[in-house]
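Input record (Table S2, row 130):
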Amino acid sequence: MFPSRYWREIPQRYRLEAGKCNKCGYIAFPPRLICPVCKGREFGTIKLKDEGELLTYTVIHVGPSAFSDQTPYALGIIKLDDGVNITAQLADVDINQIKTGARYRIEFRKLISAGHSGIHAYGYKCVPAR
Ligand SMILES: [Zn+2]
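Output record (zinc ion complex):
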């Protein structure tokens, strides 16, 4: 049900590890092999900041089937304090009270339960920073 890329990227996603280009400083999340800016191939590993600012969001009323029991929910783009944009579901917030520019913090949550197999997918969601 998930592409192999999803599984391969789990360690980075859990630890919020990003690659930082040794040559130009570009931060890639998930990490990449080749820098899209300078084509450099040497990256250091950094841990991303877990807080940032909500840039924009959209409310999903009809979601993919795995998320259908969670609709309506909001999907936001958060600019983390080190400049990386991530897309994540916004949790613990009334979808009518969401404001761009608000501070959000990354938390690890169960994303979905896959039917009867009992497989849970975990990942990050963003909750209001307090
Ligand atoms: Zn680079």
